[in-house]
């Protein structure tokens, strides 16, 4: 928790979920400050895109903005920080990036995302609603704004200029001119080797252009014959959960904090395994929050080790502890991770046991069982 001065006002802002191991990580950055400096007086509807923890939403809440993003955790962070500052949550409306946007905004503020594909999807969506009178300003760390970023704004929206760097942040100013633009597919698709499955990936899905090597290794070591309920936690495009459906008679719950990931998983089951839809469920959630204890027979995940631009293992810790709570006694958590992350020690600490199922020169597949033995 820390104090941020934004637009001449002070706000108390937290990252979410709170990272007790590194409380120095801020919930805002210089790009937020720079965007608000340049926003100036606003008359008319405001759209905010990719506001990671709600700093922009708090500062502009009086304008009742619509906050657009793909992250459920960012949505929770925004709500948390609005409450922390005594601002009614209803002052800001959160909307996922796949939903139609409000027409004719007066101001659009964009935090430039790491993924160029997500930026393209969002700019194409904005193209449908902005007008030549809309002020469009994007911001990010200077090192993350490249010629390709500028070219994307030019191609999709219109004439684009960039600011001088300030506190290592840079802004992009864009005027809408509706340049000629070819259509683009809603998803990127590829065939998964050895399955015949055509895997569809929305713009913000991890490793959207092909199966990542960790998931490929994991798929060769998944459990079989489970009749109860399983979870593909942090499901991405859903290939792990689909393989579970293929080699187990039980049900699979696909969970991710990305709306685009869950939408991709559902589309992939619908198009590749329609007969398994009745054994499938899909949920946008912060790990396994608010899910009842002692429910699942197996939880499977490839834990992320970063949040936004920050490298951290607190999300993995949350997944491990949530899994232990949500598993039945005798149920197991299966994970794949880079060997250097030492998840073996972390799982043994969380569960009291851990077994290495497989290793190669880069990854380890581990299993931890929920037992009644005191940890």
TrEMBL record:
Top class in the EC scheme: transferase
Signal peptide: none
CDD domains xref list: AdoMet_MTases
Catalytic activity: guanosine(1835) in 23S rRNA + S-adenosyl-L-methionine = N(2)-methylguanosine(1835) in 23S rRNA + S-adenosyl-L-homocysteine + H(+)
SUPFAM superfamilies, sorted: S-adenosyl-L-methionine-dependent methyltransferases
E.C. no: 2.1.1.174
GO molecular function, one term: 23S rRNA (guanine(1835)-N(2))-methyltransferase activity
Span of domain RlmG N-terminal: 1-176
InterPro entries, sorted: DNA_methylase_N6_adenine_CS, RLMG, RlmG_N, RsmC/RlmG, SAM-dependent_MTases_sf, Small_mtfrase_dom
Residue ranges occupied by any Methyltransferase small domain in the UniProt entry: 197-367
Annotated GO CC locations: cytoplasm
The keyword Cytoplasm appears for this protein: yes
Keyword annotations: Cytoplasm, Methyltransferase, rRNA processing, S-adenosyl-L-methionine, Transferase
Compartment(s) of residence: Cytoplasm
Family (UniProt): Belongs to the methyltransferase superfamily. RlmG family.
Protein purpose: Specifically methylates the guanine in position 1835 (m2G1835) of 23S rRNA.
Protein name as it appears in the record: Ribosomal RNA large subunit methyltransferase G
Organism of provenance: [Enterobacter] lignolyticus
